[in-house]
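Limitations
The structure tokens in this dataset are predictions for the assembled complex, not deposited experimental models. Users should treat interface geometry with appropriate caution, especially where small molecules or nucleic acid strands are included. An illustrative entry is reproduced here so readers can see what is and is not provided.
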Amino acid sequence: MILTSLFQRSGKARTAAALKDLQQLCIRLLSEAGTANSAAIASEVIAAYTKLAPESRFAFFEFLDTALAPDSDRVLRAAKAYAEKPDAERVLELQRVVEPPRQELLRRINRAPGGTSAIISMRRDLLKALREEPRMRAVDSDFCHLLGSWFNPGFLDLQQVDWGSPAALLEKIIDHEAVHAITDWTDLRRRLQPDRRCFAFFHPQLPGEPLIFVEVALVHAIPRSIEQLIRVAAAKEDAVPPRVAAFYSISNCEPGLRGVSLGNFLIKRVAQELKAEMPMLKRFCTLSPIPGLRAWLGGLDAASLPETWPAKLRNRLAGALKELRSRYGDDLSGIADAAGARSLPGDDQARLAQCAAVFLARVSVTPQGDPVARFHLDNGARLERVNIGADVSEKGLRESFGVMVNYLYDLTSIESNHERYVHGEVVSSRQIGGMT
Amino acid sequence: MILTSLFQRSGKARTAAALKDLQQLCIRLLSEAGTANSAAIASEVIAAYTKLAPESRFAFFEFLDTALAPDSDRVLRAAKAYAEKPDAERVLELQRVVEPPRQELLRRINRAPGGTSAIISMRRDLLKALREEPRMRAVDSDFCHLLGSWFNPGFLDLQQVDWGSPAALLEKIIDHEAVHAITDWTDLRRRLQPDRRCFAFFHPQLPGEPLIFVEVALVHAIPRSIEQLIRVAAAKEDAVPPRVAAFYSISNCEPGLRGVSLGNFLIKRVAQELKAEMPMLKRFCTLSPIPGLRAWLGGLDAASLPETWPAKLRNRLAGALKELRSRYGDDLSGIADAAGARSLPGDDQARLAQCAAVFLARVSVTPQGDPVARFHLDNGARLERVNIGADVSEKGLRESFGVMVNYLYDLTSIESNHERYVHGEVVSSRQIGGMT
Amino acid sequence: MILTSLFQRSGKARTAAALKDLQQLCIRLLSEAGTANSAAIASEVIAAYTKLAPESRFAFFEFLDTALAPDSDRVLRAAKAYAEKPDAERVLELQRVVEPPRQELLRRINRAPGGTSAIISMRRDLLKALREEPRMRAVDSDFCHLLGSWFNPGFLDLQQVDWGSPAALLEKIIDHEAVHAITDWTDLRRRLQPDRRCFAFFHPQLPGEPLIFVEVALVHAIPRSIEQLIRVAAAKEDAVPPRVAAFYSISNCEPGLRGVSLGNFLIKRVAQELKAEMPMLKRFCTLSPIPGLRAWLGGLDAASLPETWPAKLRNRLAGALKELRSRYGDDLSGIADAAGARSLPGDDQARLAQCAAVFLARVSVTPQGDPVARFHLDNGARLERVNIGADVSEKGLRESFGVMVNYLYDLTSIESNHERYVHGEVVSSRQIGGMT
Amino acid sequence: MILTSLFQRSGKARTAAALKDLQQLCIRLLSEAGTANSAAIASEVIAAYTKLAPESRFAFFEFLDTALAPDSDRVLRAAKAYAEKPDAERVLELQRVVEPPRQELLRRINRAPGGTSAIISMRRDLLKALREEPRMRAVDSDFCHLLGSWFNPGFLDLQQVDWGSPAALLEKIIDHEAVHAITDWTDLRRRLQPDRRCFAFFHPQLPGEPLIFVEVALVHAIPRSIEQLIRVAAAKEDAVPPRVAAFYSISNCEPGLRGVSLGNFLIKRVAQELKAEMPMLKRFCTLSPIPGLRAWLGGLDAASLPETWPAKLRNRLAGALKELRSRYGDDLSGIADAAGARSLPGDDQARLAQCAAVFLARVSVTPQGDPVARFHLDNGARLERVNIGADVSEKGLRESFGVMVNYLYDLTSIESNHERYVHGEVVSSRQIGGMT
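Predicted assembly:
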């Protein structure tokens, strides 16, 4: 239904003609003749796509999917030949026939001025289409593959964003902050003062367009609550130099780059940059939300905890849950009220911390785990500390009863942490370990 | 033999250990664990490669060729599955198994600072190895494929090079000028005066490193000789604005990018740039060498001209050749002397022009044709005019009896010219047409 | 009294010692020995001044006034010698002895890094002192003389300020807007949209510090009200190109540069810049406040109008005033209410316009005239049109009953307009002429 | 005679008319009316001056000298008034009438685009005129006064010049090197390698135009010969960091700024810059020519040495001179030959060193002293060491028998050294002290 409204097959001749024109331009761009004039034709392709009615865009992606797919007969012949004799000649032929022609089409579109930007914009449309029509996955894979190669971190510029940055750029930071909303320019300014930092990745072809950015607080200890980091207050001159860099927000700006790894590189590059500037920094950590906590805990059935978990742990968890439900309701919604009012008793805080720790340390290795946890743990971070009452904003209470978590980035153990995570183990601090 | 000297299999344990270390680093970089720390490992790979003895580099490329090639069994299975049912799932699986793991290795190496530069430098070594060992073609194809994607013209910056450019850049221009050598800074300066232009392509990751550059003369008519363009003389103020932009030299600076198309894009971008700056420019042409002319003409056997050529043309050519040989020797070397002394009689000039015109108009469609001609014709240029005595430098006489040629770039017919060339036809001016 | 509070002669030895140190540093900087190390000593002078208590600063200026003044005996001798024989030698000697040593002191302070900024800051303090103690005028004259030479428009950079400018700069624009306050960033942004312009003068030694800026609206006709220029609304794409550039706000940012002409140069440079960019612009005008109008009109005694004015005009004015006072009170405050409510009858509008026109056209040639009028008329502008109800903001009603005025900058008649103004004549449009 | 040829009073009416036009433009620029349009009129003045025939320029300077001089009657009146009562009012009036109107003229010319450059160019002409006509000194003093204020070191940018600098800038360095000529780009490049530095002062109004530059060698000990510093040789990687920065050449680029102090500031700024970059630098010295040595020593009459010198010293000097003359001729020209051939016996080297030391330590306090010595000593440097055979180039032998000298810049004693020099005493090392 929604699909229909999004991509109505208009019967109008005009629409059909526009689509046909675009397809012919694409074929011309891919043709032998087109190679001599590709930048000019590519510009025409971009213009034609831009003018295309939204509902025709879906049809265009269908064209990419079917008309510009690999030829299965040739693929099979080439695969057989390679299996018989895997020499240079045959592997090259194989690669040639397996690569969908639409990849070369995208490479040629990229030759036009503004080509990269146009391709990202096509991908945005494609991602919408994909939601409705999963068979577009093959087309999307080609976009993703090329964008991943072009937005390789080796090609990205890391730039610090501060109060001397262009207003047009800062406005984008305000608009795209996805974790702890920036309400206005005063709020932004607080996050750009000397004890705060903001870094973004840029691509040379998209100047002034941040792709992803991270906000960092330079503090004295691993932070326990978000309020202390983002409240608007004059940064006071501090005699003691900071020892901890806390990443408290990381936001993507470009939906058309979904699936292209940027965040993990950004965190590590920024950590290196800060370490080089301030050798006195001893620890790099995050203060992160747990957006999946409340949904998981609210719906948790203590009877069906995985048998692979230690019985003792399961019992403890079931007990905690029972206690909490008796006081805060079956869906535990009362916890949010109490946490918001800062009136959660110490014992219940401990119970809540226990539940959150288990969620992070045991569920995050499964696809049902918290997405933020999965991102950082896959990145090689260590699960460090659970903080109760750390984010009492409406969103923080709604999503996670106000609980936040610190992940620790220890550059020397990133690689082994990541490997253990891939094999199903979450590396945690002793404190978390004791609870899980 | 040369191979041996280049890549001596040293029995030394040290060399073998260094190679093994590098291979293990590569495997680690490609491994699951490596993904969390790839930029750091990539830097180690680059350092290890740089320290590798030249003779071990060949062994490293062998490792890429064999250990990091596609798995033929999996390829065959995936190809059969795709042939049965060509859906998104299966085409993706097919692409996944066909892509050699060394491609992903290169993409990850590129994540390190200086990664792009390191990969180009590897490719330079690889091209040397390839001369000796053609089976490396598959490995080279992967390098070429990725570099082609990364050095897509859409990612390149066109910059004008002039007397305000850094000396370090100008020095590279002097060093890499491949067509008409720049003898010193005075010579260079003449080529950067207001009636001359120089443009180069740069990649954002390689600042200050021109990849390819072109030199242009702004003149009043299609030029007949190179001397008028490059001799050192004060550019005189000219009341009449120029009407012709003549490309008289195009040089690649980076051997590691061989096979990556840059020249064709550069010429067209520069033509657009100049047209935008000086709308009074009416024609864009070249004054180009014909480096293959003397070798072809000297060894030409009039009896074995292709039967597909008109008999009349063959007769005329045979007659001209006979006349010339009677006067200038079997190998025609006397022509170079006479042309150098500017004492070639008018009739013999016409005969030489006829031969050159045929060489360009008829042989250039075959792989035996002149490489410069094949470049411009494939680019969509038109064969415009043959110029006798146009380059009487030692090199000009040695390679082409001093003959040069103009190719004309008419932006409106590039596409059709190219297509006709691809189908075996050279588009020429009426003058050339009459001779061929 | 206020003076006492500002510059209390503290009995404290510490303060006296600090002052003495500074004076000795100044003498050392001026001494022969100091010339070899002046930049370093100058930095010490700046540091010592900065640390000086506010009340000691006055004493420091007294020191400049008395200890570093010209020596009257030597001045007289030199003047006599010059009168006897005005040759090169003697004029030089005369100049040498007449120049107060404090000028050379300031020039040497300027050699330190940050010297210019320090001198401007001293001048800010001096201007405060001057309010209390007019005899500091001689010292201030030296500051003003040197700053005028250093901030010569030939040394200033004109830069456009737009949404791509650094936020730190835009914040200064918001803070210093003196005519029509910018309430927030949204308000600012409206003034930086494509149909609005903002230009500022910068000095190379004070990067990022706008000295003065002007805001311009690109419109179709000479504007009648400020609201149409500054209200926050999306700028609509306009098919018709603008024909009029209206300067609607000009603000100084640096009080320490009072008396240094910047505004007149800025307006003319911006007009040239805009004309070069948009040759279709036909007229350059202002929409200006009349801050002195209400005070003048409210207190006007019709009986004592200058006898030099035509009797007819005096009668007309007296009549209008009487009418207005009968309806709006002796102090005319009712006009502000009526204008604010947009309920001023047409006849009274005409009367008010008549009064404003006379004020601008006749009183502006006297020191009692409106300061904004005197600025623009002295600049060579023409008095163009009086606009009733043009600024109904609280400030606009309070200062000028909401009346505003357009001045016209016609680059070809600036010089003669200025000259006529200097001789006591205001050049006006026919409309204004008819009323005055 | 030369004067006549330079400034021939042409009878031609055209010339006279051009001059008169220029004078009227100047008067208009200075007039009341001109203030409203001064930038535009200033541009006209510049254009009119540029078109003026060289011989009329002299007449223009005469006009500045006479027509735009202070009014002697008003000067006298103001001086008397000030002598009676030296208050703010009267000192201001005095300054007003003493300042020649030509100063204000220059300030207004400076308002035009390119004004500063035009004024410097006028000064170049004026300096030529001054050679012939000393009474122009008063005019020149006004130019010099204003240029000194505008080219205050606080307004100058210090920039490092290296191989990444624009070729157009490097060419100016080659052209203006005044001490040890740079023969070509290879020679220049050697002076820009990592163990050499070049710094220049720039003015914001004259971008790309170095005003003065200094060349520095980073070495291990105070250098004894120029050859080791400038010979073209690959800079070898050096494990030991440099401890000495040796200034071996300082050259002015702009003759129009003669008399404006730049060199002394440049040396000290560069020393600070280098010290900040390389804290291991322990000493800052020069290796300087002694251009006046041979002329002084060749013509020295031992009988007429100043009686104020110690008798013992006079005797020693007379003895050395006699010995040297006996072997190398009365004019000592044989020394140059022997020094050039590196065959000067050790004893004669000692005698020559003695003479040079005395010349530098005793004669430099008089106007007859060596100009380079006077520059550095006045700057606060210490006379450190005389080096025989230090510059055996043709110029070095011709001017100073190949002798060079080191001056030492010790930032802590600059001020006192300068003061002692001003009072007639040259501060020297113990070694020099022992000889003088």
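Some entries come with short summary sentences. For this one: The CA atoms of residues 354 and 435 of chain C lie 6 Å apart.
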